Amino acid sequence: MEKQYDLIVIGAGPGGYPAALKAAGLGKQVAILDNREPGGTCLNRGCIPTKTLLHVSQLYREQIQSEVFGLHHKEVTFNLAELWQHKNSVLHVLRAGILQEFKKRKVTWCQGTGRIAAPGIVEVTEADGQVSQWHGENILIAAGSSPARLPIPGIDLPGVFNSDRILAEDCLGPDSHTRYQEIVIIGGGVIGMEMAAVYSDLGSQVTVLEAADRILPGMDKEISQNLKMIMKKRGVRIHTSVFLKEICQNGDGLVCRFEEKGELLETRTDGVLVSVGRKPDTEELFGLALRDRLLTERGYIKVDESYQTEAAGIYAVGDVIGGISLAHMATAEGIRAVETMYGLPESQNLSVIPACVYTSPEIASVGMTADEAKAAGIEVKTGKYIMSVNGKSVLTGQERGFIKLVAEAASGRIIGAQLMCARATDMIGELSLAIVKQLTAKDLSSIVMAHPTFGEGIAEAAEDLK
């Protein structure tokens, strides 16, 4: 059975489904397929479920500490099975929303696996085993990625999970009803630190093992240092510059053996979360000829600045091409690819991409840090505002935090921002706009901010730059 489309999208995650809807809005005949649920990793096994758990676990911690506000209660408890049920209901609502948009814009949805046999030809195996051949003038690959596997002894033991598995119902805890009393998280990046916050807030003893010399190694150093201090205050054990040697069975639990600064150490645990990066899902995507032509040695798809591959009519975006592995980046790339296909002007500036971490306090950054600017030979000045004197921060009981702005010394133009405070992930959009529109510190400080708000800190940091 053969089917004909203007655009075939492989992967219904944040890189694929917005692009499909964009093309359909242009009047194109569009089909999209994915071997799992619509929404991809972000909605089903990443951004949305983890942020749901973070929201609830932070509420629980705040309830326990609420006596400082004069709120007294006999006992606060939680039920993990009900928490996971809430998480699943959130995912269900959002998946249904995507499917409704497909229906509204007449996008053909198929749950199945696609293999590109040649430019313009996709062999589709649906979930029920039915096989068909789809023909498309253009093909957009947004197949995403999977958790990377750490090549160490014991990685396949029961109780050792990746970020996909830790969010499944059978990984709630040792008996699927309670949390892990002790959990080791291998990797102190974004995923690792967010899950450390979840389990710590729910009362688990958390140990983080990070190979780099600091947690969140891709972030501003001051952010890393502050988060480490806050997490340690909450009882999280953090080891950096770690070389993990093995994971061993120890009675009903596990033992992680590692080397830290020349010293051999070990820690006992009920479970281990491995969050050490991701690999592109491209192994079964192409026939042999296209695979050799389009993939790098590490399995990424080679594209140009318009996200076109060397094969006519085949585009790729998101995690399969490497680069910035963020959902909103994949969405922007997918939209850009569709604009390229159909001769439309570029609608977004992809050179300014914010990054967020949803711990408490939240963390967000965009543009360059002062160290990065100096390394690039740009003379800069920085403005900083400590949020411990911000009215909204004080009255809501926030912990230490700050807003830091980086500007060109000569022009005063904002080129970077780093935030660590409540609502940082909501405020970073304003600073992204400032960078894209080449606003100066004077421009930002001229805005009258509402009081009391967290956003007042932006104007204060800008004032510090003048």
What brief labels describe this structure?
466 residues, FAD/NAD(P)-binding domain, Enolase-like, domain 1, five-stranded mixed β-barrel, 14 helices, 32% helix, globular
Commentary on this structure:
By secondary structure, the protein is of the alpha/beta class. It has 3 domains: 2-146 and 279-341, FAD/NAD(P)-binding domain (3-Layer(bba) Sandwich), CATH 3.50.50; 160-276, FAD/NAD(P)-binding domain (3-Layer(bba) Sandwich), CATH 3.50.50.60; 361-465, FAD/NAD-linked reductase, C-terminal dimerisation domain (Enolase-like, domain 1, 2-Layer Sandwich). The protein is built from 14 helices and 21 strands. The protein has helices spanning 17-25, 40-45, 47-64, 80-104, 163-166, 190-201, 221-233, 288-294, 327-341, 370-375, 391-395, 424-436, 441-445, 456-465, and strands spanning 2-10, 30-34, 108-118, 121-126, 131-141, 145-147, 160-162, 182-186, 205-209, 237-239, 242-250, 253-260, 263-269, 271-274, 278-280, 314-316, 355-357, 363-367, 380-386, 402-408, 414-420. It has a 5-stranded mixed barrel. Strands 7-14-8-9-10 form a 5-stranded parallel β-sheet. Helix 1 (17-25) packs parallel to helix 9, helix 3 (47-64) runs antiparallel to helix 4 and helix 3 (47-64) runs parallel beside helix 6. The radius of gyration is 24 Å and the shape is globular. It starts with a strand and ends with a helix. The mean pLDDT is 94.
- Give me the number of helical elements: 14
Task: Give the number of DSSP strands.
Answer: 21
Shape: globular
CATH classification class of the largest domain: Alpha Beta
Q: What integer is the average pLDDT?
A: 94
Describe the strand arrangement of the main beta sheet, using strand numbers: 1-2-3-4-5
Helix coverage percent: 25-40%
Pick out the low-confidence regions: none
Structural class: alpha/beta
CATH superfamily of the largest domain: FAD/NAD(P)-binding domain
In this structure, how is the largest beta sheet organized?
5 strands, mixed, barrel
As for the CATH topology of the largest domain, it is FAD/NAD(P)-binding domain
Task: Please tell me the total number of domains.
Answer: 3
Q: What is the strand content?
A: 25-35%
Report the span from N to C terminus.
67 Å
The gyration radius over C-alpha positions equals 24 Å
Architecture of the largest domain in CATH? 3-Layer(bba) Sandwich
